[in-house]
# Entry
Amino acid sequence: MSLARPHRTWTAGFALALSLCMAQHAYTATRAAAPAADLLVTAAKPDRLFVIDAAARAVRTQHQVAGANGQIFTIVLSPDQRIAFLLVDRMERIVGIDLGSGREVFRAELSTSAERVKDFFALMVTPDGKELIAYELPTQLKPSEYVVEEPRFAVFRTDAGLTARPVRSYPAPRRIHMLLARPNGQSFYALGFDLYEYDVKTGKLLGTRGIQKWALTDHSQPDLLAFWPVSEPTGVFTSPVYSELKKAGGNVPMTALMSLNLKSGELAYADFEPLSALIFSTILSPDRKHAYGVYTTLTSIDVDAHRLEKRVPLDHTFYAVNVSSDGREIYLGGTNCDVGFYDAAKLEKKAILKLPGCSDQTLSTLRVIRGK
# Structure
């Protein structure tokens, strides 16, 4: 009996230890399998680039961008989400900033002594990360006159360092304000008053579809404001579109949701309410069932039913909107020094983060880095 007791005690202890070990292993594996929190990327006047921990509601890092000259406009990310390409210096320079170190790794001066070149918001990185395409509006600077030249797309190598020059260029239409890459890397969309598709390598125009020249029955010519090239997390770009629905008793101003599937190329419009509140930008939820729009209010749209779900007032205007990778939170930015965090289901405010060293975000793109 005296020999059996220690054996039973050892067996029970071993079982307990094994159980605890397995439980700890399962806990560790569960933690490892859980997705990491979202990081937000935004910018603010005069020269600040921020990386924000969305779960902690805190700035993780901030970088001072040399030569920003007062404002950072469009932000596009490299495919590996490590480099942010920024349009700065009155839209005449593009810089690439390593988000981890803040080091400048790319610079393209668009203007020269003989030519002033502006990029009106529109730039993109190809899906393989090797090239950057910018929309250029050039003007010759002659001794006694300025000569406005034709717009063009300029293509840069992203590994060109701090003295990047175009490796090729080709003609572009006027009034473009957004570039969006197709996932296959062979072509890209140029969005303006109409939607154009171009071959990345040759610059050949592959097709044109109407936006202001749309052919929707009983609708007037539409209008839209689309400066924020955000299609994450779904690969579908969306934007509010405004027009008048022609009726016998009088025209009715309407708000529609435009959607462009970057992979399939499907372009669709759907009215969802008579115009009652302006919306500047929209984002599609990860399950593609809801769209969220922002300006002086935060709006939720039922995508399948084409109807307004809910609308709440905001403390002030927000221009840019994005959504968390799990679809539970909405992120707001683009104006003032506030980044807002809202519950996606209830549209309730959860937190406001004040950005340090900021005077205004002013149209900066609000990007989400997922699972990093």
Remarks:
- Confidence is low (pLDDT under 50) at residues 1-35.
- The chain has one helix and 29 strands.
